[in-house]
Known about the structure:
By secondary structure, this protein is an all-alpha fold.
Amino acid sequence: xxxxxxxxxxxxxxxxxxxxxxxxxxxxxxxxxxxxxxxxxxxxxxxxxxxxxxxxxxxxxxxxxxxxxxxxxxxxxxxxxxxxxxxxxxxxxxxxxxxxxxxxxxxxxxxxxxxxxxxxxxxxxxxx
Length: 128
C-alpha cells in the first residue's frame, strides 16, 4: 500500500503535505502511510485519497488491507468451518484466547497482519 500511495502521489505531482491537507490528516500521519513499516490503513482515509486520485480505493490496497476491507470475519468463519476444529484448538495453535477468535469473526477487533499471514499465507491452521 505504501508503494501504491507513493506511486499515485508522484503520478499526480503532489507533495506529501498536499495530500495530507486534501484528505484532512496530519502531514506526519500521511508520511507514515508511505512508510513500509505501516500495515493498516483506515478505509475512510484511503477512500479520500482514492477520490483525490480519481481511482477505485481497491487500487491502493495490499492483500492484507483488502482482507480487512472484504471482511476478516467472513473469511475467518469460512476457513474455520472448513477445518472441523474447535475454536479452542485453533486458539491454542495461534496462542490466543478463544474469545479473540470470536472477536475477529464478529469484527470487534482487527486481526494483525502477522496473524493474517500465519493463518492465510503460512496456513498454520492446516497443520493442526
